Amino acid sequence: MSYTVRYAKREDSPGVVNLLLALAKFEHLDPPDNGSRRRIINDIFSKKLVKLFVAVDDDSGKLVGYALYFYTYSSFLARPTLYLEDIFVLEEHRRRGVGRDLFISCVREAEKNGCGRMEWAVLTWNEKAIHFYEKLGAKRLDDWFYYRLSDENLKILSRKNEKEKDPMFRQ
Fold first, then answer.
1. Known catalytic residue: 133?
2. What residue segments make up the domains of the chain, in order of their start?
3. What pLDDT digit, counting tens, does each position of 119-142 carry?
């Protein structure tokens, strides 16, 4: 199989959604609902909040993998950081270099944009991915923990702090 890695185009949207659904299945997660599907396509192609590389089978034109990324910023390096949110290849297309080429596309993008580093998270049970990254020279960070506030927690905390600052709610 030959394939091409390129920036995603809006017409790739149905294939992108199919890959997201396949990733959810692989990670044993609930798939994105219809609203989430519309938002991610809008965030990629209209708002340009995130960027996307796709791997395309040259024979069929089918999307077989993707890498979704965005930029954060390092205050100590005073440079951007490319954050790789997702990298995924359909199972039947793995072990052919597709994932490596998607990853290297992100590396080149980070270098092109003056990034001081590239970061991502890996599920602890995904030993193949861990081996892949470490083989490329990536180092696992042992001195950092990732934290998350869910959508529901964001709303609760935001409302709580609004009430605390509002004199009407102070006692």
1. yes
2. 3-141
3. 999 999 999 999 999 999 999 998
Q: What is the pTM of this model?
A: 0.87
| For residue 65, pLDDT beyond 90 | yes
Q: What secondary structure does DSSP assign to 81-136, as a single string?
A: EEEEEEEEE-GGGTTSSHHHHHHHHHHHHHHHTT-SEEEE---TT-HHHHHHHHHT
Taking domain 3-141, whether its CATH number is 3.40.630.30 is answered by yes
Residue-level pLDDT at 162 = 66
What's the CA gap between 90 and 43, in Å, rounded? 23
What does the pLDDT average to over 27-51?
A: 96
What's the CA gap between 122 and 71, in Å, rounded? Answer: 18
Residue of 66, 133, 146, 147 with catalytic role: 133
